[in-house]
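So, who can interpret the following?
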Amino acid sequence: MFLDRAAKIAVEKCLNVSEYDRFLVLTDPYLYEIGFALWDAGRKRTKDNALLIIEPTGFHSAPLPEFVAEMMKLSTVIAAPTKFSISHTKARRDACASGARCATLPGITKEIMERTLDADYDYIARLSTILAEKLTNATTARVITGKNAELFLDLSGRKGFADTGLVHAPGDFSNLPAGEAYIAPLEDTAYGNLIINGAIFDTGRLNDDDWIMVTIDNGYITKLDGKNASKHIEKIFETHPKNATAVAELGIGTNPKAIVTGNPLEDEKAIGTVHIAFGDNASMGGKISDAEIHIDGIILNPTLYIDDELIIEKGNLFVK
């Protein structure tokens, strides 16, 4: 019952599916129940619909089969609850460029969907837009984490984006649950240190004694320190091209219903958090499209300056 209600909100309020749309739900065996619920809600609004179950791709941002990419380009609305994210794939970008509006729900659970989809999207849109404009107008950002580790980012000339959850115009894209402002820093410029203490990739929520210290120089990770989580992430990077270790994104959470549970899809939306992502950033105006992965590192209780303006202090967001 609650899942059906959440799916109805996603289809009607977030995606605004109408009788004129070609609605595609792209899912896999892991998230079939959620995919079916979204398709079932959508078929009540348009007769032109399809539920496509694909083989799990194996890792986030992995290329999709060509025939799947073609189906996406033929659709006007896409919902994609999949175990591995398709957000930063060429297929998703090409579909949006062809006019499809798309919401991806990578790794979503029934509990997350039921709890977070019924959000105040007007508030999320307003806050995310304010922060995205600040990012667009900024030249620098500074993130202070943990024991005074500092990361410096160059934002010059890059556009900030608002993830509002309102996917109504051709080409619109959002995660669900939604709620962040984000930007791709200039490649090869980030430097300093960063402590990831919330979650990253599939580590689950990090323990107090298992945070990851990341050393960054010229835009790339040069060293990872920590315990189990650090070693796990290091192995992930070793199996991908060098660009997988490039600083790809600065993001700010704006969803008041999101909490940090160890699932990055929701974690990165929690108010008072910042996330730094590594790998592909072509979907947000960056130049890295061959990293084969996009990994978000969630930071709890950060302090964030955009230029000289204090945006977050130890997890308290000052922009309302």
